[in-house]
Amino acid sequence: MAGNLRKRRDISALDKHEEVPSFGDIDSPSNLSEPTSDLEMYSKEVLSQLIHDNLPPTPNNFTLYFDRLLEEKSDTLRKQINSILEFEDTNDDEKSIELEKSLKQGFSSVKSILQVTSNLYKNMALMEKILDKRRKELGNDPTAQAVLSTISTLDQDVGKLNNILKKQVTHMKELYQDAAAIVKNVENETIYDNQFGIYNKRYLLNKLEQEKNLIDEFKHTSTLITIELSKDIEESITNQKALLLMTRTIARLLMKTSRRSDVVAHYGEGVFAMILKHTDIKNAMRASERLCDLVSSSNFFLAEKEIQLKIAIGIANISTQRAVEETLVCTLNAMEQVQNEDNADDFCVCNKDTEG
Q1: Segment 213-230, tens digit of pLDDT
Q2: Same structural domain for residues 98 and 76?
Q3: Fewer CB within 10 A of the end CB, N or C, for the chain?
């Protein structure tokens, strides 16, 4: 680990007997009363810890510490508080994701309608051919003049209906193209990755830039990790569908192990990224180790063969001294180093963050 890395206080290791600022010393126009519930007591503890660590009690920082301190509490308190949180409204990002899902589902329905209508048009054209064939078959039979007359009339009616339907299909295609253009424009602004059920690359880059600015302002430490399926597994499995299912399994495990304050996203081509806010390299390595253990304990069955999942992780500081893209390259290079070398660990820290 680099010697020049900024050391920050590990809030999980705070001495319980160490004094922290009293809430009686905080100026408040409302003269806060003594807490009357476990949630109130815990919330005041979180605020007190923020002040102790000289961090501004902004909503984002409060949320970060709220989640991190809760990890150290009893199962009973965690369950009690989590049950309360479930009743809260979803945040704006979650609402945007639901809107994106609804829009794409609506577009899929429009596409299905167009396909059904197109099939109907094809069937009408087939009906014209059948009528023409039957008319030719009856043409040599002098007793079938009445039938031929009926077929001719029916053929004319079907032809008229077919022309009307053809115009409607053409109009529907134009409407579909307009809808497709709208969806394409929306996709350029989306934050959700449908394939893996997590945030997408666009959202990741925005959040990385935002976190970099926050670090510059408040001088805390955050890290980025990138994760992908082990190359050994990818090379041994030829079934692309099975590889996709394995990759989706990793995405679900990332969501399962992440904190609410973490950002989990699909960077692209089966590579995932996690922004670990207020987490230094040392704690990021611990989190990576836990994640590797969790994945390796999740075996995947392919036919009669049991496959132990394995991942590679690259770790880097989110530094104000380098661009977001450079930080991403650092984690990707570290991850590639794990893939290409026989390492004892399945994770590696960027060389630039281990120098010095």
Answers
A1: 989 988 889 999 999 999
A2: no
A3: C
